[in-house]
Give the backbone structure.
Amino acid sequence: MLVLSGFVLAPLALAEEPPTPPPQRSRELVRMVRQDCGSCHGLTLRGGLGPALLPEALRDKPPAGLKYTILLGRPGTAMPPWKTFLSEAEADWIVAQLLRGFPEESK
Amino acid sequence: MTMPRTWLLGLWMLFLSWPLLAWSGEPALRGTGDLGVIIERGAGRVLIVNTSANGIVGRVEGLGDLSHASVVFSRDQRYAYVFGRDGGLSKVDILRGTLEKRVVQGGNSIGGAISQDGKLVAVANYEPGGLKVFAADTLEPVADIPAAYGDGKLSKVVGIADLPGDRFIYSLFDADQIWIADLRDPKSPQVEKFGNIGKAPYDGLVTPDGRYYLAGLFGEDGIALLDTWQPQQGVKRILANYGRGEEKLPVYKMPHLRGWAVAGHQVYLPAIGRHEVLVADKINWKETARVPVRGQPVFVVARPDGRQVWVNFAFPDNGFVQVIDTLTGRIVQTLEPGKAVLHLEFTPRGEAVWISARDDNKVVVYDTASFAKRAELPVESPSGIFFTSRAHRIGF
């Protein structure tokens, strides 16, 4: 029953908006995505050595897959795992921001 | 008695001519050999800097998306050609501090090169994958060479460099190939292709004599080597299996290769996914040493005299810079110039090095003999630093 409810709840949980990290951490995450992910995916996330991360490019991909791509990387490609630097909740939040259009860095 | 009179006359003439100089609007005459540009990554702007005065001379705006921008110089060292991530190719007049011309020639590009005679500028494109060549004076398109492979797919182009004879050499990231495009007759470029060079070349370099092309491989341990004096010998693999089969560390930033890797008779190269700099002999291309360093190297750059090699690192060690003494093969200095060190560039003869610290919004200038800080310049999210001395170096 517990297992079953886990299965039922998981997709619901993903559909909900992941909690926003504290302001300082949010700023760090935005900077990390723009600058460090940007070194392969472009500062504007339009793609580079890595593919584009704009909403229209990601729309058809399941958010859970995107989250695990961020956390675990994609073996056999240049995409590294980021789990050392990110929690699962933070990865969820990043995916949600990417899908709606990633925020710019505040100056 | 004549001395003071001459002096007075000189002063008087200066006094008379000063308003003329001030009103004529003519800038003072000067050369450009001690100038350079710094990319302000997020602002779509380049700064023009003076390496004699350690100062900022001017700013040029409107260059588009400059994340990962790179620059080559005209042979008269007056114009900087800036390659933007958004496919923009901009020609900046560094004497006047103006944007002379800008074309958006592709969707996504990474770098370019200028031909031996200075007449052609080639851009390496990710999207659409291929090479586009432009007239250096007008930026009019001259040639378009799609990087087609397999059944018509286009590969991202990386590692472009000029070769003697108005040729460009580059690698196809997705196709595991090296191509040489011969532009001596720009209307009908000849392309020579080399296949199976190794998995996923990520960048390349031409040695300062224009002879050897090295492509770093992301997909395997090793470097692809082509002797362009004897291309019929094909591509060889050097430093193969440098990882000894160990699993490599996650790579958070791709290293960059250029002819600065060569110091004397040795070549210093970043190891992918390892905290090491690989050293190879430039004659027989055998590994001679490896230097353990602070993190995963990104830029491994020899001082122009080859006595030192400076190294910066990928995230999360990107606050450090280390210096290798090439005589002993040891680290002699570890510096912390600032947060997120992205690039470093030596002055033409190497008495100083300029280092960009992106997250501290500054460029720091160090004396390379004493390692003392000489200057600090406020620059918004600085990335690449490019001095005009590159204009006369093969492979830059």
